Amino acid sequence: MPEQSYAPIVDGDFWQDAGPAEFVVTNPATGESLGRETECDTSAVGRIVESSKRAFQQPTWQKMSAAERGRMLLKLADLVEQNAEELVQTELQDTGKPVTQLRAGELPLTADIIRFYAGAADKIEGSIKSGTPGEVLMQMYEPYGVVAGVLPWNYPLVNAALKAAPAIATGNAIVLKPAQETPMGTLAFAKLCIEAGIPPGIVNVVLGSGSKTGQALIEHPDVSKISFTGSTAVGTHVQKTAANQMKMVNLECGGKNALIVFADADLERAAEAALLSGFVNAGQLCVSCSRVLVESSIAAEFETLLTQRASKIVMGNPQDETTLVGPMITRAQYDTALRYLDEALNSECRILAGGSAATMAAPCEHGNWIQPTLVSGVQPGMKVHDEEIFGPVLSVVHFADEAEAISIANSVSYGLSGSVWTRDGSRALRVSKALDTGICWVNTMLSGYPQISLSPHKLSGTGVELGMEGMRAYLKRKSIVIGIEDDAPVGWGLG
Ligand code: TAP
User: Fold this and answer.
1) Which of 96, 106, 134, 146 sees the fewest Cβ atoms within 10 Å?
2) Which CATH superfamily is domain 258-442 in?
3) What pLDDT sits at residue 492?
């Protein structure tokens, strides 16, 4: 059978000879090759951005009503659902994510995000302000033009929808750049955009490494806005690059989030949430809580609950419906997580569950497997506490009182999410307000999408994604002042 090749999408079609196809895309669960991916160089990226610019400037796109763009997005959401099983299998191969998490999580969320922005497309309102009697002051919104959507590998479909749906709803064109390891979901998504009637060129895809293709994309002068999701290190670089051309940037970056359990909480539910949060997608989820802060008076009881439940977690072939934990996406990510575990093993921490790489049976024996790991006795200042591991490693930290819980939670340089577990309503609100994070859940986790907006704090990013605010981030402001009286004074006292 000929080897599968992955090519960029321009003007609605695959561009087969866009560049050399040397990068091997692998299935992280089995280590098998899924095909080779083209790398777009600066000139190929230039051609693709040109196509996006042309598509944006087309009179048909410029004159299309917001309601019509919304209808196209509704069609796209329907197509995502109609092709759900194919998309599930694509993502399963490409990311190693367990099939149940794809069916119940990533696919429905992708469709929900698209529908949310479909409905929101014609709800953007400008304003008329009361100025002097001789003038009308108007404020309105306009699309940027060509937007770059730079995606991580952990949730390719959700992230493609998160960037493309608001971009389309607001009348922009978008060039998506998936992570080199996971091109398949983004390509499938872009093809469905064409099937939904979204004009060719409005959603293009470049393929290749971040340092070459991604860099060429964000530097392109016709790209007016960059929406980036990925690590803090790369996000910082993207922001610096964008500053050279004063481009608008949205950065959704790393997290080291805390789930805080007070003694009065429903401990069974809190334990369930902590494990789900720490181990879903093998811990490769930015908003997951990888630190569990537990009040000292119930710490022993809570750790027993965590350990008992962790022993029942099934890690294995992502195709199996009982699997909760799949593999790490790449060998590099696997090596990174093992380095953190080594450090924890060589410290005063106690391993309550897991603690090492896992040996798997065929067909998964060559995948990137790490046991779901619970580490107790973790303290601020330790790397396992302070740094984002992005693997199935849940750290347990004890605290004496509310003030200490807040101080530990806020001691890291990230500020993405948090979760507070208590039956005391005032304390829930007090602690939520005190956490320096973009979102805080109370007695729940990972819910509220796509209506809520996420605006990362500290080194977790800048700008806003999701919700209506997330859509306005794809629009620039324009003010128009009209003099309607011939004798109205001209501004600054000139008249
Ligand atoms: P990164 O290594 O930062 O990569 C993210 C994207 O940026 C990839 O497409 C990457 O391309 C590209 N890239 C790398 N260098 C670039 C450059 N110079 N110019 C333009 N693009 C460049 O992150 P990752 O490892 O894929 O994802 C994991 C990280 O994403 C974690 O830190 C996680 O917390 C974060 N994340 C955050 C969120 C939110 S909502 N805050 C959501 C998901 C993930 P290549 O990979 O092809 O080189």
Assistant:
1) 134
2) Aldehyde Dehydrogenase; Chain A, domain 2 (3.40.309.10)
3) 72
